């Protein structure tokens, strides 16, 4: 580990990969163009009352047409990598069956343009926009199979130029926000057994996807998952609270990342669920536990945790009315998560390589009369998080890269366009992009490869 240590107290490892992230439905628009099929998010956003101001992703940031401009923004920032997702319904408008060549052509153009700009694409196969034609959506066991077919098909098309694939984005989010709270598409509030089955299908899609990508892609292609595991921070860094942090991380992610990394459900999870436990078929757990080349984590809000003598051995601390947070009500400011997210997954499961696939925040952007966009709260948030990610690299944890969420303002799911996560401001009337103060800050950080 010592050899990898940066000598400078603010520096990152010399080959650290700086990037930005986006997702298809949030930026592309062009919802009816070139044969794209309908998705669950088209249906959900067009249902009155589901999204703030009844906004939709029909136009979004218009990146389907403006990807060249977006790539130029990244070139100007100096990022070496871009995490993007593919819209499944552009490739298979019905979710399966006949592929749509125009969809493939589009992503070929985007990837070629990225490579021409010296930016390495990291491709997520599924970031929540599920083809509406698939009967029963994630409740149907055929959907993970359809996903694997689509993922294998695209890996075959792209792996001559794309060397890193992520199967799915945030299994917990599209399972639970979509099927438990109902605040995301398809807006269901399922009882526990059915919810657990959706969760099982979500991680099964990941597992079958890994197999299909490996079967179709060129040798050496790197495959992983992007997951927002629920992370924990020990309030006091003593051995007992650190042990509680690891126990909580493993336990609270039992039906998601823990199952993916261990290839089995924890006994305590199955016991606690009882009759509501998911139906698991032979071979499922082996697929779900497929070895990965890297683990990518989306890092936002953790919980503080402490050791105690309850049966689980830990307690999660409640938030208070004054716990600091950003404009998104779920986004609490706990920058120590930068270190503890990386350390927890590393100590528990020893992945060879870790990426941060997302980290960033909503913030109140101030547009000045001369057109500058000032977002000091975002700079504060990012600087704080990166201070703690840097600690993980300095201690030798295998964190190899960081993708900032997000390159530009976009459709923020149920919040529509009311919460902006970009480091480039988008005027949604004109689609004009303006670098915010945070973009200038990020450019300088990348240039120095050190905190600023
Ligand atoms: C992630 N939560 O979603 C997604 O991957 C992005 O598409 C999204 O734009 C970004 O974070 C910001 O929201 C999350 O409620 C959505 O804790 C909700 C939560 C966390 C992440």
From TrEMBL:
Signal sequence annotation: none
GO cellular component, one term: cytosol
One annotated GO biological process: cellulose catabolic process
EC number of this enzyme: 3.2.1.21
Catalytic reactions on record: Hydrolysis of terminal, non-reducing beta-D-glucosyl residues with release of beta-D-glucose
GO MF annotations in UniProt: beta-glucosidase activity
Keywords: Carbohydrate metabolism, Cellulose degradation, Glycosidase, Hydrolase, Polysaccharide degradation
Superkingdom: Bacteria
Pfam families in alphabetical order: Glyco_hydro_1
Enzyme class: hydrolase
InterPro entries in the cross-refs: GH (IPR017853), GH_1_N_CS (IPR033132), Glyco_hydro_1 (IPR001360), Glyco_hydro_1_beta-glucosidase (IPR017736)
Active site positions: 170, 358
Binding, substrate: 26, 127, 169, 300, 405, 412-413
Family: Belongs to the glycosyl hydrolase 1 family.
Protein name from the UniProt record: Beta-glucosidase
Species of provenance: Sphingomonas panacis
